[in-house]
Amino acid sequence: MWPERGEVIIKDFEVRKPEVKEILIKTRSTLISPGTEGAFLMALSNTSGKFSQYPGCSNAGEAISVRDQTSSIRIGDKVVSRDSR
């Protein structure tokens, strides 16, 4: 977690339940890009400059909760996601 510009901490937090049209993914692998996330960490002019932040730009894992009955994704499916910043 980045509580403020240039500061990185490890912090436990509760994961909220997914809302409608969301899924919860048990992460197997994730990526932090040194260029993009570095820019966000240092609040460069091409970023939002808002804190606190939870970094990451891609994720691969398993769907463990699905809140969209029309979705083709089911619990146990292998999925990938990307940052929606």
Number of strands: 3
Strand content: 25-35%
Instruction: Please describe the biggest sheet, giving its number of strands, its sense, and whether it closes into a barrel.
Output: 3 strands, antiparallel
In N-to-C order, the SSE pattern is EHEE
**Main sheet strand line-up:** 1-2-3
SS content category: mainly beta
Gyration radius, in Å: 15 Å
Shape descriptor = elongated
Mean pLDDT: 89
Write up this protein:
- The structure is a single chain.
- Helices cover 9% and strands 27% of the residues.
- The two termini are 16 Å apart.
- The relative contact order is 0.28.
- It has a 3-stranded antiparallel β-sheet with strand order 1-2-3, with no helix packed on it.
- The model has no long low-confidence stretch (mean pLDDT 89).
- The chain is mainly β and 85 residues long.
- The chain has one domain (23-82).
Q: Gist?
A:
This protein is 9% helix and 27% strand.
Q: Which terms summarize this structure?
A:
85 residues; 3-stranded antiparallel β-sheet; 3 strands; 9% helix
List the helices and strands and how they pair.
Elements: E1 23-31, H1 34-41, E2 58-66, E3 78-82
